[in-house]
Design brief:
Helix content is 74%, strand content 6%. It is built from seven helices and three strands, in the order ααβββααααα. The chain has helices at residues 2-29, 40-50, 80-83, 88-106, 109-137, 142-182, 191-229; strands spanning 57-61, 68-70, 75-79. The chain has a three-stranded mixed β-sheet with strand order 1-3-2. A hairpin with a 4-residue loop joins strand 2 (68-70) and strand 3 (75-79). The longest helix has 41 residues, at 142-182.
Amino acid sequence: MLIWIILIIVPMLFGFYAQMRVHSAYKKNVEIPSRGGITGREAAEAVMRSAGIVDVEIVEVPGQLTDHYDPIHKRLALSELNYNGTSLAALGVSAHEAGHAIQHKVGYAMMSIRQTLAPATQIAAGIANFVLIIGIFLISTAIGGKMLILGAVALAVICLFQLVTLPVEFDASRRAKQQLVTLGIVDQDEMKGVNETLDAAGLTYVAAFAASLGTLLHILLLISGSRRDD
């Protein structure tokens, strides 16, 4: 019971905390306009242009915090509040996505590894829950054991992808913070709001990795226990 709490419940609670923190930080700082008054789109464009990037399309997408960089199509997508907004949160998130574009341009190794792992991770994410449910339900049978092993392999792939994602996200935020000040997009005293937003977002990636790792360790313990019972 204690192991289950440590491996499953604690990471789950950490994940809830991380989500609450990022939404709280974003909600707070999206209401604070930057002194410069430029939009997130303009900030992303300026950050990329400073790195010599002129071939990335910046588009607006629906939703909140749906921002992302697509390296395959060289497209930087910003949610409405960040695309048109002039807030500290909008500038921080937009510059962060531009940081991913810079990583792509310079051939940042961890980003390349993440791209390589992405197809396998999509497959693993698609089958993990299904085979784990079957494996746990049929844990006392041979097929149940095989399903658990397959589920553990899928979880291992997901964990590896999320582990590689951590330095990618933290590096993008580092580049964003540096460029926002260097380019004069925000003043140094405004960086508190930017830092708060990006640091909270980074915590969600740590929480996701912790949850997947905890589940993987729990499944490995189940597999070990079922083998001892055979």
